[in-house]
Each structure stands twice: as C-alpha cells, then as structure tokens.
Amino acid sequence: MCSPQRRGDYRKIDMPNMSYCKFHNTLIDLTDCRNTIEEMVTGDEDEMFRLSHEEARAAENLAEQCFDILTLLCEHAGVDLDQHQDARALMRSVIASLPRR
Hints:
- There is one protein chain.
- Helices cover 56% and strands 0% of the residues.
- The chain is mostly helical.
- Helix 2 (53-77) runs antiparallel to helix 3 (86-96).
C-alpha cells in the first residue's frame, strides 16, 4: 500500500505499480518531468538539456493529457473552459519552443 508522504516530498520509492498507487507513482514521474522542463527553460544555455524529437513529441502528448484531465475536472465542477480554449494552442506552441537535439 502507498505510504503517505509530506506535500512536496515526491522522492521515488520502490513499490509495485498497483492501481492504488497509480496516482502516487505518476505524480512522482510528472513532478520529475516538470522539474526537467523548468531546468530547460531557466537553465544555463551551455548546460541546457535538449529533448530528442521522440521525447519532444512525448512531452507534447503529456501536456495534452494534462490539459484533458484539467478539462474533465472543470466539466465535473461546472467551470466553463470555453473562454480558455486558446490555451490548448498556446500549450502546443510553448512545447514546440522547447530545445531539441
């Protein structure tokens, strides 16, 4: 069973990827992806991590999935996302701007 951790403490711990740990394990990996993107956009250009074309496509798909999750949650909560539909196009252009090899 997943053991609770303090907020912001997303260290990888060994545990099976069972359905009851799905969000916990994914959160750890997603946090790692977020930190990598932050390093890419704020890091020193000489030491900047660059995405392969395959990883860049995966990053775009991941961002798309995150947007879809947000959309589902907003629909459930009755929040109107229509005014933010341009956010999807903005997200794609931002992902496309990430450094690639």
